[in-house]
Amino acid sequence: MKRNIVYILIFALAVIITGCEYDNYDEPTSMLTGTVNYNGVAVGVKSGATQLELWQYGYQLRSKIAVHIAQDGTYSARLFDGNYKMVRLAGAPWLTPTDSMDVVVKGNTVFDVPVTPYYTISNETITNSAGVITANCMINKIGTLGITNVQLLIGKTAVVDVTYNAAQTTLTSGLGDLTTSKTLTLTLPDALKALPYVYARLAVRISGVAERYYSPIYKITL
What we know:
Number of strands: 17
Oligomer: single chain
CATH topology of the largest domain: Immunoglobulin-like
CATH class of the largest domain: Mainly Beta
């Protein structure tokens, strides 16, 4: 009986010591930040829906680090200093590269991620006239895939996308000719007209691609 008690005490002490060792590990303190961009212009996405992956080499056990991209195309990750591989994943509104990128993290590090979207939105204007929101923009084809539609999305908050919005309208006609500006018009419901302002952005849905390409978000005074 005494022998069993001794064994139990030794085991408990070992667990406590091991737990203390884990607790004493330093937390990562370096911040890796950057912007996913095309020709220096940030690529808008649905917040949290599009990811990058980081892999750190030099360790016996390796696992991926998921890095979420914010709706304005920025990202951040708290990491240990070291050498990483960054992977741009499929399913995003840009061509999927076959190569990874080397990233060296040493203290706070800025690393912008270049991508090539299938489409971009440019020269956009979004205006209000008595509760009628009008958006004009150019749609620019870069990849080889087709385009399904263009959407104007309106939100009550600064988070706006195809899921989080209070009103939307969709343009499906005239997309075979992208040499001219596209116009979308949306009459706000009364509940939104009563607000001092709303947020708006445009989105392009690409054929066969899960995620849309988004414009920046604009605050529209009513």
